[in-house]
Amino acid sequence: MKTFDEIIPAIKEVLAEKRAELVALNGHRLIINRDLNGYVRILADESLDGDINIQSIVDAIKIKLEGRVPDVMPVLYDDSETIEQSIRQNPHFEIEGYPQVMVVDRTLFESDANKRTDTVATSVPRIVFYSIKGGVGRSTALSAAAWSFAEMGKRVLVLDMDLESPGITSSLLSTERMPMYGIADWLVEDLTDNGNAVIDNIMSLSDLSINGEIWVAPAHGKNVGEYVEKLGRAWMPKVASFEQRTPWYERLNLLIADLEERIHPDVLLIDSRAGIDEISIACLTCLQADTLLLFAMDSAQTWNGYQILFDYWRQHSMASDIREHLQVVGALIPETGRTEYLSNLWEHSWKLFAEKLYDEIPSGANDADAFNFDISDSSAPHAPWLINWNRGFNAQYNHSDIFKQEAIVSLIKSTFNDFVTSLKDVIQWK
Asked: Span 126-427: which CATH code?
């Protein structure tokens, strides 16, 4: 029996054997559905059900798949709208070299993380702070950016989307200022059309709002309630009927649009869930962010993780859509061995982008439109924005009061000044 990872290669082998016969599909598409358990089923338009020639081709493909992949379910002929609905609601990708064959993955949370969505138009710059793993200073950098922008007189909206490991809120809100509810509450209540019960008490103004404003929508509010039980429901699609299912990221975009309409922020900063799963990837691809900050430390774990992420985008034809929005952030640059560390960080970052996301330019060619950057190009997405490890700052960083202490303010400026300046330039504030 083949494993899950061998399903796609096995499908390609079978399709190669049947390449000539596939021409008979004449524009019709075969769907290969992988269900939640990894079982495979071939779906085809019901209009093909009476075509003996095509039926024989589809049956032959099914027979050849049996024994090569986990259990192959009977062929299902369904109406075209139901098939298209399944494609829209789930991650999907074409088999390379076979445009008439598409793989559709049924996943638990129906997060179609392989596309950038434009469900809600927005003029507010959106920045996602993301990392493969926690503990790399991602949330700290977001807090420093929010404080710095507020010091400039800007109105900042911060979303704590790391629902499973919330933390940024404690850096920006005192206990007394915590709102009654959080993002998890709204996602759960919205499933039963009860979002209005919490929407007015889902964000609060930070204690750090002096020249400008920092509004924070935490993962959970002062009334934590049954948080674990809520997390088991927060990422679910909202189901009105079989034909009308709204995935969590579309629901979240509606919430964000509501919050933006209420306070009219100059920028939205999103603290993403860390890791590599459909929810984390959807935070990068489905929240209409202008800039996606990829926090990185020079370690095998970091680069292996980003390689998996980039490979996912390549397989799902996302590379060309997502790559222009990416920016690597070199986090917690060590105080000792700095020169060698930076050299390795820069080289490993470039190698990853060059192999996975940059266009290949044949020797001697001069393609000005190609998305390709030299290793030394400091304007490239692989060129890390640097955040230095600062012993004094990290030793004292534990709650929002630090931003009010003169000595710490100086440390914040020295530690995050270059990072904040680069981010400000991307936002293009005057």
From this structure: 3.40.50.300
